[in-house]
Amino acid sequence: MYCRKCGAELPEGSAFCHLCGTQTVPVPAAQGDTAKSGSGIVVNQNFDVNAAGAAQREQERDIEIARQQAGELKTRVKQWAGAEVPPQESGPEFSGESAAPPRRESERPSGGIVINQNFDRNAAQSAQDNPGESAQDQEPELGFVWYRIFQVLLALWALNNFTATGTALALSARGAGAYAFTSIAIAIFSTVLFVQLLKYKLAAIRTLTVFCVVTPVLGFFAAAQAERFFASLGPLLVMVPTIFYLKNREDYLD
């Protein structure tokens, strides 16, 4: 006999289907085609038996597939569970006492501001590597004042060189060739040196300040004709030490 709902084959005398739990009704074997009286509808009882057999075979196939899938899943679970876990290294170097504390990217203090400790360490390391840049950043106002003074003295220096060149040309026309040559040479040398000193920073500004102050003073006191030659060499007393001074101050190079 077969279950009329799922088509499972049942033993004789079963009251319920062991698969779907439906109450069973005995189905006789193939009895051929019969006609229902008074209805005109032909009922093929063999259809129920054939449909039940096809449903049973399909259900058995589904059950077999499910069993195979369940077996494969159990095998994979066993493989995952039995996978070797690398043992944790132990020893004095990995103990809790000697190990470094956990690295925290940031912490939030009571003020609510996030502080990145890595940034602080990097900034401190950069400050140690470049102490000169930190010192310059800490004195912006002093550098600005020196730069303004340098601009004023630069204009005075240019005026002084222009006046010295004009005086040299006038003396050259009168026959004082030696003094004229010396004055022109000093003017050219001062201009070239000034252009070269522009490559430097605060050290050059301070040195040029002294040079620009000393030059007019030496020219003012050189009133006598015989002393003009020595007065023209006066700026060299400042420029020569300036050259050696700036060579030793490589930290002020651009």
UniProtKB/TrEMBL annotation:
Q: Which InterPro entries match?
A: Zinc_ribbon_dom
Domain Zinc-ribbon as annotated: residue spans: 2-23
Q: Where is this region: Disordered?
A: 77-113
Does the keyword Membrane feature in the UniProt annotation?
Answer: yes
Q: Does the keyword Protease apply?
A: no
Membrane-spanning segments: 152-172, 178-198, 205-223, 229-246
Keywords in alphabetical order, please: Membrane, Transmembrane, Transmembrane helix
Protein name (database record) = Zinc-ribbon domain-containing protein
